[in-house]
Amino acid sequence: MNSADINAEPNGGLNNAELVNKDSFERLRSKNRHKEFRRKIFYLFVSLLLCAVVGTVCVVFFFGLKHVEVRGNGKYTSDEIIASCGFEGSENLFGIDLASLRTKLQSSYPYIRNVSFRRVLPSTLIITVEEDSPAWFTDIYGEWFILSPSLRVISRFDMREEIDVQELGVTYIKLPPVRSAVAGSNVSFVRTADYGYFVSFLSEIKGYSFFSESIDSIDASDRYRLTVYSSGGKYKINLGTSDNLEAKVRFVTKVIETAFDSTTIASVDVEYLTSVIVLKQTDLFVFPER
């Protein structure tokens, strides 16, 4: 062992008193750091609380609902729609339950298909509505209904005579068995798959120029024997199913345009394109409930 080892003092040359003071200083510094951290957390919490209070006060006093604007409406007046909202004048622009308001308007006004809202600061609510158009009418369990292109119920009548077909521009359709028909909702069929099937068929059949304006009525009570009456009862067209609809319509159009004259009355059966049947007759077809 050399002289350096013998003369070296333990604890870095610090005596016991100095060691105690150093430990106390470290503990004090650690304690102060914790206090400073807690103080910062407290100030942050107070700041956030004050911001929340100020924000709430601003929302309450500066964003009160004062103006309501309705856009896109045609069937119903703006005053009717605003009155149905039930605003009392004390509402806050950000406190309105828009989802409930949308449901309320759609149930009160069946022609309204969709509703959207936009807040315009500081105090205006803009209500934009999308309205359905009447396309079909039908009878279900003794009641009469006006339907949209998507078979959504938009009106109900007790008697057929109450429906102004010409004014509404609607076409009669005989539907397959229906489970329920509620204003503002789509028709519910006994066979669930029928809804999508018939909406697709009706949309497609209306898209062909020959049928777009000449359809008198459609018998869709049997999805496997879809029948269209057109041109004031002159033509009865059996389509079978909606399969190969484009080819069937093209064939029917060609037959009527090239093989019939203006006085021809006939039934055309294109259920099977390989064996089309055309039968002429003298009397107009009696089509359902025009």
Automatic annotation (TrEMBL):
Ranges that cross the membrane: 41-65
Cite the POTRA domain residue spans from the record: 63-132
Listed A to Z, the keywords are: Cell cycle, Cell division, Cell membrane, Membrane, Transmembrane, Transmembrane helix
- Coiled-coil positions are none
What are the annotated GO cellular component locations? membrane
Main location per UniProt?
membrane
| Pfam families, alphabetized | POTRA_1 (PF08478)
Does the record's keyword annotation contain Transmembrane helix? yes
Which Gene Ontology BP terms does the record give? cell septum assembly
Q: Which Gene3D superfamilies match?
A: membrane protein fhac
Compartment list: Membrane
UniProt protein name? FtsQ-type POTRA domain-containing protein
Highest classification ranks of the organism: Bacteria, Pseudomonadati, Bacteroidota, Bacteroidia, Bacteroidales
